[in-house]
UniProtKB/TrEMBL annotation:
<dbReference type="InterPro" id="IPR023214">
    <property type="entry name" value="HAD_sf"/>
</dbReference>
<dbReference type="GO" id="GO:0050307">
    <property type="term" value="F:sucrose-phosphate phosphatase activity"/>
</dbReference>
<feature type="domain" description="Sucrose phosphatase-like">
    <location>
        <begin position="45"/>
        <end position="280"/>
    </location>
</feature>
<feature type="domain" description="Sucrose-phosphatase C-terminal">
    <location>
        <begin position="303"/>
        <end position="430"/>
    </location>
</feature>
<keyword id="KW-0378">Hydrolase</keyword>
<dbReference type="InterPro" id="IPR012847">
    <property type="entry name" value="Sucrose_phosphatase_pln/cyn"/>
</dbReference>
<dbReference type="InterPro" id="IPR013679">
    <property type="entry name" value="SPP_C"/>
</dbReference>
<dbReference type="InterPro" id="IPR036412">
    <property type="entry name" value="HAD-like_sf"/>
</dbReference>
<dbReference type="Pfam" id="PF05116">
    <property type="entry name" value="S6PP"/>
</dbReference>
<dbReference type="GO" id="GO:0000287">
    <property type="term" value="F:magnesium ion binding"/>
</dbReference>
<dbReference type="InterPro" id="IPR051518">
    <property type="entry name" value="Sucrose_Phosphatase"/>
</dbReference>
<comment type="similarity">
    <text>Belongs to the sucrose phosphatase family.</text>
</comment>
<dbReference type="InterPro" id="IPR006379">
    <property type="entry name" value="HAD-SF_hydro_IIB"/>
</dbReference>
<comment type="subunit">
    <text>Homodimer.</text>
</comment>
<dbReference type="GO" id="GO:0005986">
    <property type="term" value="P:sucrose biosynthetic process"/>
</dbReference>
<dbReference type="InterPro" id="IPR032710">
    <property type="entry name" value="NTF2-like_dom_sf"/>
</dbReference>
<dbReference type="Pfam" id="PF08472">
    <property type="entry name" value="S6PP_C"/>
</dbReference>
């Protein structure tokens, strides 16, 4: 039986700053939780380079044994919208609406037990009635409201007083609620049992019951609604450099002496990579930052890495950045079985070696076109001794146009180390918005 070793929870997709995630890894005998958090930087990283660095690190070093959890203030529809705009990996668990909704896996299956917990001593109608009596509260957009999350904007100077008064009134009406102030202006009213911290505690407990408690958990956050994450016992935590005042104030008052929590010097997802290194939770050098990556080495121990490395090369090649790659290409070609086949998403079959040859003419064709490639959900399985199947989603983006293919690569291992590419098969992913065969190469 396999156990997840690490859990990474990132604070979500706060509109102006970030997306946070949990990262988990699996444990073999003892369980080990690690959580990381990833953020989308809307201000300083329009090309999402930090996110892309995190993505390839995650897929290379953590995906196989860790859990990635996104925990966001956003509602599920708003998270899905962001996912279409940014190169975000598929999390194992998605906690949305400030910890009032939990769902699992690629198909986003709702946790119904959590729904029941959220409805305990909660009545949205009463919350609406009582909050309407406060002129200081301005209701947020309809798309930011959920059954167990009533969200407002408020002037910072009024937040404390209104929170106190509202809390008492709702208590008198028989409700058990929680009020959270975030981002210097947002005020969320939630069920008392909700919130990101409670959702994480629930998740950890569920994993424990299933015998899969991660060995390490890293939580990441940037705003007031992330505060609770840092109060969960035994978790490592990182407040990214661009954290909001309310989170930093909370840290000064409550957690300054906790060596398991750091204030990173890097922004957003860069802060997560920094924390992974600081707490020694695993490798934190992204394959994107490894310049020697394209050297022709046969010492790779992992067929998943072969694929990640290939698609990094592919991105650089088409961006015109990979200039001296003759050795890598020759090595790649030599690693393709002479009878190896590539099944294009159109259904057309080609020789693998011919496909590599054809790539030569695409060098630099995507230069200055904001072309990026990333891999998601890379899973390598040994099917028989010496035979591996690597399954993944391969995404590519040119400007705002994105495509995604479900990709399967079969490898056999060479006697003297390294792997032989036996065949590659691609089909359009359900998530792909554009399924245009004509200019898809591999
Ligand atoms: C996100 C949500 C918003 C909420 C805020 C703080 O921005 O979209 O509704 O108030 O997080 O939790």
């Amino acid at each position: 039986m396999k156990f997840r070793e690490r859990l990474t929870c990132s604070s979500p997709l706060y509109p102006h700053s970030c997306l946070s995630q949990f990262l988990k890894t699996k444990a073999s005998s003892s369980s080990y939780t690690k959580s990381y958090f990833l953020q989308v930087d809307h201000h300083y990283d329009p090309e999402n380079l930090s996110l892309l660095r995190f993505n390839s690190l995650w897929e290379d070093a953590f995906r196989h044994d860790s859990l990635l959890v996104f925990s966001t203030g956003r509602t599920l529809p708003m998270y899905k919208k962001l996912r279409k705009e940014r190169p975000m990996l598929t999390p194992d668990v998605i906690i949305t609406s400030v910890g009032t909704e939990i769902a699992y896996g690629k198909s986003i299956v709702t946790d119904d037990t959590w729904v029941d917990i959220m409805n305990h001593k909660w009545d949205r109608g009463i919350v609406e009635e009582e909050t309407s009596k406060f002129p200081e509260l301005t209701i947020q957009r309809e798309c930011d409201q959920r059954p167990n999350k009533v969200s407002f904007f408020i002037d910072k100077s009024k937040a404390q007083e209104v929170t106190k008064e509202l809390y008492q009134r709702l208590e008198k009406r028989g409700l058990e609620i929680k009020i959270i102030f975030s981002g210097g202006k947002a005020l969320d009213v939630l069920p008392k049992g909700g919130g990101k911290g409670q959702a994480l505690a629930y998740l950890l407990n569920k994993l424990k019951t299933e015998g899969k408690l991660p060995v390490n958990t890293l939580v990441c956050g940037d705003s007031g609604n992330d505060t609770e994450l840092f109060t969960i016992p035994n978790v490592y935590g990182v407040m990214v450099s661009n954290s909001q005042e309310e989170l930093l104030e909370w840290y000064e008052e409550n957690a300054k002496d906790n060596a398991k929590i750091i204030h990173a010097s890097e922004r957003c997802v860069g802060g997560i990579l920094e924390a992974i290194g600081h707490f020694k939770l695993g490798p934190n050098l992204s394959p994107r930052d490894v310049y020697g990556l394209l050297e022709c080495k046969e010492d790779n121990v992992n067929p998943g890495r072969e694929v990640i490395k290939f698609f990094l090369f592919y991105e650089r090649w088409r961006r015109g950045e990979a200039d001296n790659c003759e050795a890598y290409i020759a090595c790649l070609k030599a690693s393709c079985h002479p009878a190896g086949v590539f099944v294009h998403p159109s259904g057309a079959e080609k020789s693998l070696r011919d496909t590599i040859d054809e790539l030569e003419k695409y060098h630099g064709d995507k230069k200055d076109k904001k072309f990026r490639v990333w891999t998601d959900q890379v899973l390598a399985t040994q099917t028989t001794p010496g035979t591996w199947m690597v399954k993944l989603d391969k995404w590519e983006q040119t400007g705002n146009e994105r495509k995604c293919c479900r990709t399967t690569v079969k490898f056999t291992s060479k006697e003297n180390g390294g792997y032989v590419w036996e065949n590659v098969q691609q089909t359009w992913s359900e998530e792909a918005e554009i399924k245009d065969d004509s200019n898809w190469i591999i």
